[in-house]
Amino acid sequence: MEDEKKPGDTKKIIIGAVILIVLLAVFAVIYAVFGPKATQGSKEYILKVVDDNGETTEYTGHTDAEYLRGALEELEKTEDLTIEGEESDYGLFINTVNGVTADYSKDKAYWALYVNDEYGNYGVDSQPVTDGDTYSLVYKVVK
């Protein structure tokens, strides 16, 4: 005996799909209204700059930026921090911080990025900013 579709089966499927879509839309609106919100300066971090003389300058920043570059750009607007560099395939390559230039081709110097006192695995464009972390830009010379 063949399965015969009853005339109301298709109608029930359509009604069920519409109800599901409406419920999903309601949950999305509820989440958008009552879900977590980013607040200005929701992440606090510390930036330490260690120059070629070993002198450390410390900054405290507050940001909503997802990556360190955005946080540093915000910090430049409010503090006496200056960062210059060149764009590369991997993002910003920092060569000058607070007027001190590291030139690898001249004296094998570079600006190293540390996260919580550990050598950074990412550049400033891809390093996530996490609340409470300490980032350091340290002038280094390869020996």
Topology:
Elements: H1 7-34, E1 43-50, E2 56-63, H2 68-78, E3 83-88, E4 91-97, E5 100-101, H3 104-107, E6 109-115, E7 118-119, E8 134-141
Parallel strand pairs: 1-8
Antiparallel strand pairs: 1-2, 3-4, 4-5, 6-7, 6-8
Structural class by SSE content: alpha+beta
- The averaged pLDDT comes out at 90
The helix content, as a percent range, equals 25-40%
Would you count the extended β strands for me? 8
Strand content: 25-35%
Q: What order do the strands of the largest sheet run in, or round the barrel if closed? A: 2-1-8-6-7
Distance between the termini: 86 Å
Give, in order, the helices and strands. HEEHEEEHEEE
User: Judging from the principal axes of the Cα atoms, what is the shape?
Assistant: elongated
Number of helices: 3
Low-confidence stretches: none
Sheet with most strands: 5 strands, mixed
- What Rg, in angstroms, do the CA atoms define? 26 Å
Question: What would you say about this model in short?
Answer:
The chain has 143 residues and is an alpha+beta fold. 30% of the residues lie in helices and 34% in strands.
3D architecture notes:
The N and C termini lie far apart (86 Å). The chain is α+β, with helices and mostly antiparallel strands. Strand 1 (43-50) and strand 2 form a beta hairpin. The protein has three helices and eight strands; from the N terminus they run H-E-E-H-E-E-E-H-E-E-E. The model has no long low-confidence stretch (mean pLDDT 90). Strands 2-1-8-6-7 form a five-stranded mixed sheet.
